[in-house]
Amino acid sequence: MKPAPVWRTTFRATLFEEIPCGVAVIDRNLVIVDHNRAFADVFGEGRGKPCWQATRGRTAPCADCLAQETFADGQRRSREVVGVDPRGQSVYHLVQITPVRDESGKIPFVAALITDLSATKRLQREYQTLFEKVPCYVTVVNREFRVVKANGMFRRVFGEPTGEHCFELFKHRRERCADCPAEQTFLDGSSHTSSHIGVTREGEAAHYVVSTAPLVQTDGETTHVIEMALDVTRLHHLEAELLRANALREALVEHSPYAILILDHRRRVVLANRAAEKLWDRDRHTLVGRQLPRRALGCRLEEALQAGSESSPHLDTTIVTAKGEEIPVRVSGFPLPTADAEPSAALILQDLREIRTLEREKLDAERLAAVGQTVAGLAHGIKNILTGLEGGMYVTSGGLARGDEARVKQGWAMLERNIGRVSALVKNLLAFSRGDTPQPRLIRPATVVTEVAALFRELAEQHNIALTTEIEDVAPASMDPEGLHTCLANLISNALDACLVSHKPVSAVHVKLREEDGDIVLEVSDNGCGMDYEVKQKAFTSFFTTKGSGGTGLGLLLTRKIVQQHGGTVTFESSSEVGTTFRLRFPRRRLPPPVESGPEVR
Predict the structure, then answer these.
(1) What one-character-per-residue DSSP string does 249-281 give?
(2) Domains located in the chain, CATH noted
(3) What are the beta bridge partners of residue 582?
(4) CB–CB of 445/600 below 8 Å?
(5) φ and ψ at 46, to 5 degrees?
(6) CA distance 550 to 446
(7) Residues of the chain with pLDDT under 70
(8) What secondary structure does DSSP assign to 344-392, as a single string?
(9) Number of C-alpha atoms within 13 angstroms, CB side, residue 63?
(10) Percent helix, strand, coil in the chain (nearest 5)?
(11) CA-CA distance, 220 to 208, in Å (whole number)?
(12) Cβ-contact 483, 592 below 8 angstroms
């Protein structure tokens, strides 16, 4: 046999080194006798090493050694195996074993052609991970519309595919869908998208948007289609809830008994409900687009809307209807959040015509009732006083006729006492009915309390009643000194009378002035007879008194009136045979401003 040309030997040597895959020559002892550069790049230097050690890091031959099988029968073999590189990393590769025969036909060597599959395997793993973990339903269907592969999310929701049709798994149908996107992709090889409603393995509706794409093409024909379905069930439910909520809000706005207007940033009406139509006596289409007059908003409401306050003050104003009628309304409003920076607002208007009518009727009824009650009370009080006067006149006349000086003095005392009652009744009645406004000025409340307590101290000592005070020097306040004097005098007088009626061995009245959380608090307590339930219910009733002929029944009414004129409140606690505490509370923030900057009371 002629020797091979030099070029052929050179070509083979060059090809052995430059071929882009690993090549190793292995003898019958499974020792690598030679390898190319590509082999060394993956497994390192392997010459003189057993193949199972150089490529797989083993300490003994492989049980399924392809080289030994090829040495035995001379057949070519290939297999995907996992080797180990010098760093201990796994190397996925395809091994193709080819016998190398000598001139006699024997096989002294085999050539192992090694193709690195690591990158391919990595891509396969990444694809499989993406296929399994992608947050949508992914299936692969063949031309018979049978599911040949499905990802984890699909299996969890619709079940494990075992050769069923896609319409069976997705929708529990027996025939193909009329608008099947997979069928359209099989026909034209293009992607298609459509919305569908499926049925889960639990029988619940599943809304999804499916997109299809040709997956495998052979000779220009699409053999498989991949379907990617995004579950929008939650979005569908939210959309349905939003529609229901919007319908509910529209119904509430439309059927509200109050007029509701939605305004844009220029205070133009963009929405009006049925009550607004009725209030203005206009069709809503004529209201929409009109600018609301600034007078209808008022400065305070406009400022609140401009500032973005969550709540705004109520404003009583008037609007003019299409017929020119002025209607009293109460307006409140609040800003509305918008996507852009332009502010808008909602206004709620309450028609006050019926309320004003009812208020007038109620006021008339109360006025008539008050007149009747006042007349009846006056008649009863005057009758009692007249009886006393007649008694005094009788005693005085009898004494004069008999020349009995003692009897004359007795009758005269009766006359003086009842004339005093007439004077007290008239003064209290005038003070209560006059409607005088307080004359507040900056005073020291402690000074007034000290003065009033001093006026009653001698009277208390005469009846063995301990009158004590606990007066805190609170800061000056804008109050009517005469009104405060009247209130405190009424309460101390009532407390002393309650102690006289109780006949307790030790009687006491305590007056206390303090400041508490920005409020001026004045308390008058006694351990007198106290009040039972019935008396407490009538304490602030006109002409009601527990003092018999000694009282007018107007003291507490006058006290409460003065306190309320100062923005304060009157409360009391009382128990029968235990005692009573009256408490006057004047919040500083509600005190009337001084009418003039007069001298401060010391």
Answers:
(1) HHHHHHH-SSEEEEE-TT-BEEEE-HHHHHHHT
(2) 6-121 (3.30.450.20), 134-236 (3.30.450.20), 256-351 (3.30.450.20), 356-433 (no CATH), 441-590 (3.30.565.10)
(3) 524, 572
(4) no
(5) -125, 0
(6) 30
(7) 1-9, 11, 216-218, 293-313, 338-343, 363, 366-385, 387-388, 421, 424-437, 533-555, 596-602
(8) EEEEEEEE-HHHHHHHHHHHHHHHHHHHHHHHHHHHHHHHHHHHHHHHH
(9) 0
(10) 45, 30, 30
(11) 30
(12) no
What does the alpha-carbon distance between residue 340 and residue 223 come to, in Å, rounded to a whole number?
Answer: 51
Confirm if 58 and 81 have CB atoms less than 8 A apart.
no
- With CA atoms as reference, report the closest residue to 428 among 545, 277, 283, 256: 545
Distance CA 562, CA 591 (A): 12
**DSSP reduced 3-state for 175:** coil
Length, in residues, of the chain = 602
Q: What's the CA gap between 511 and 507, in Å, rounded?
A: 14
Question: Helix or strand or coil: residue 584?
Answer: strand
pLDDT of residue 519: 93
Instruction: Identify any residues that bridge with 219 across adjacent strands, giving them in sequence order.
Output: none
Q: What is the pTM for the complete model shown?
A: 0.43
Backbone angles phi, psi at 329, to 5 degrees: -140, 160
Helix (H, G, I), strand (E, B) or coil at 196: strand
